[in-house]
């Protein structure tokens, strides 16, 4: 007796094989993301000249970035990609973003400015590529990758608290500071504060139990304070309040929601005072000892005086980064350029920096379309904190993490479900 090759058994085997391949590819993507996020510049500098002076331009790209860019064609062309509704729009937007950014990178290389492409590729092009890779996965794997980003944030937060308690950093940190500050997996205290503050906004979008969400948000908040990132801490404090007030609790009727939020706000007020007292007694608020407007704050405003020492050609068409750093060091007595607008202006020239900035903000705006309020809140926190220093002009994985979170949780609260919940609450 013979059986058809397309019988139920064959179909079942094919389905299991496809599921196994999908899961294996998910693990590969996760591994590449972990390498990109957790292998800090200080670690990579031990292997090749990643952020150190010298080395070829291809050494200025993170090994995790190479892995993720290599995974992009595999994700898009190795099997069918099924998209629907807003996913198609986001896919097109990410393709446009990557295409235009690739043209900019090619132009810079062709005009002998390959030294300016490091942060473009390592921060932005890879973020767009990761967004496309995620859209090529099924929604459950996307959400798992989003959860993984939050878990990495939580792990970094836990490491930060350990570092504060022991005064020992787990990973190398080359920048000297007057006071000890933890870095976790972020590579820098300010990056740690930014990733913790941003992640707080996306925790409500997970499917975790309520007590797990609350514990996760508390850990991230305390780690933000431990990082000594003052603006991140102030914004995170407002973020938690806004999340409670503006994010709908669809499982409750409107009257019950108001009562529950009032109770939570009361507990937050009482608990918040106690928490800040504990943080202050533990020395985690020492960065506020001299107020908000101190030398670090003034350094981020005084750096704009650099325009007094350059020509209009330098501003419009860019100039050597080493020359601008020399001016900042010698004329302004500042150790760094802690300003993304200034960094990008002299890296690309104003004539390219403005369209580039518009392109980045356009992508973020497009990814936020039809997103829940929590995503808007978390993204706003990211932009407010990141634009207060030079994060957006440096080689950083934070933009990639933001894109992963926005794509992974895009369907966290479907619009139809919101309408149904709203109708139920009005009854």
Provide structural commentary:
The chain is mostly helical and 427 residues long. The chain has one domain. The protein has 18 helices and no strands. Helix 1 (8-38) packs parallel to helix 6 (139-166) and helix 7 (189-202) runs antiparallel to helix 16. The longest helix has 31 residues, at 8-38. Mean pLDDT is 84; it is low at 1-6 and 413-427.
Given the C-alpha coordinates, what overall shape results?
globular
Q: In total, how many beta strands?
A: 0
Strand content: under 5%
Order of helices and strands: HHHHHHHHHHHHHHHHHH
Described by strand count, sense and barrel closure, the largest sheet is: none
State the helical fraction: 55-70%
**Integer count of domains:** 1
Terminal CA distance reads 62 Å
**Residue windows where pLDDT falls under 50 for at least 5 positions:** 1-6, 413-427
Mean pLDDT: 84
Q: Determine Rg (CA atoms, Å).
A: 23 Å
Q: Class by helix and strand content? A: mainly alpha
- Helix count, per DSSP? 18
């Amino acid at each position: 007796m013979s059986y058809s090759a397309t019988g139920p058994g064959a179909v079942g085997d094919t389905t299991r094989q496809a599921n196994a391949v999908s899961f294996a590819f998910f693990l590969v993507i996760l591994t590449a993301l972990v390498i990109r996020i957790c292998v800090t510049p200080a670690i990579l500098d031990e292997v090749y000249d990643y952020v150190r002076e010298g080395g070829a331009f291809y050494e200025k790209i993170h090994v995790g970035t190479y892995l993720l860019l290599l995974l992009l064609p595999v994700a898009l062309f190795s099997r069918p990609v099924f998209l629907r509704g807003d996913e198609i729009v986001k896919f097109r937007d990410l393709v446009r973003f990557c295409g235009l950014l690739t043209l900019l990178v090619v132009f810079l290389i062709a005009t002998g400015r390959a030294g300016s492409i490091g942060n473009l590729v390592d921060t932005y092009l890879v973020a767009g590529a990761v967004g496309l890779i995620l859209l090529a996965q099924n929604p459950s794997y996307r959400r798992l990758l989003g959860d993984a980003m939050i878990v990495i944030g939580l792990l970094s937060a836990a490491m930060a608290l350990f570092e504060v308690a022991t005064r020992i950093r787990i990973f190398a940190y080359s920048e000297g500071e007057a006071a000890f500050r933890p870095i976790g997996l972020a590579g820098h205290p300010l990056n740690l504060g930014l990733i913790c503050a941003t992640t707080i906004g996306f925790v409500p979008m997970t499917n975790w139990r309520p007590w797990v969400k609350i514990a996760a948000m508390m850990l991230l908040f305390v780690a933000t304070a431990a990082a000594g990132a003052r603006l991140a801490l102030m914004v995170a404090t407002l973020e938690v309040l806004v999340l409670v007030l503006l994010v709908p609790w669809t499982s409750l009727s409107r009257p019950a929601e108001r009562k529950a939020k009032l109770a939570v706000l009361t507990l937050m007020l009482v608990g918040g005072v106690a928490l800040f007292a504990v943080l202050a007694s533990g020395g985690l608020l020492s960065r506020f000892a001299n107020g908000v407007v101190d030398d670090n704050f003034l350094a981020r405003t005084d750096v704009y005086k650099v325009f007094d020492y350059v020509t209009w050609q330098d501003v419009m068409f860019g100039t050597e980064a080493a020359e601008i750093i020399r001016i900042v060091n010698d004329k302004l007595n500042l150790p760094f350029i802690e300003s993304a607008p200034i960094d990008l202006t002299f890296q690309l020239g104003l004539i390219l920096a403005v369209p580039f900035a518009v392109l980045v903000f356009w992508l973020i705006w497009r990814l936020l379309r039809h997103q829940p309020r929590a995503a808007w809140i978390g993204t706003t926190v990211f932009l407010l904190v990141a634009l207060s220093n030079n994060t957006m002009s440096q080689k950083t994985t934070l933009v990639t993490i933001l894109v992963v979170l926005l794509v992974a949780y895009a369907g966290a609260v479907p619009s139809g479900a919101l309408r149904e919940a709203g109708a139920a609450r009005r009854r």
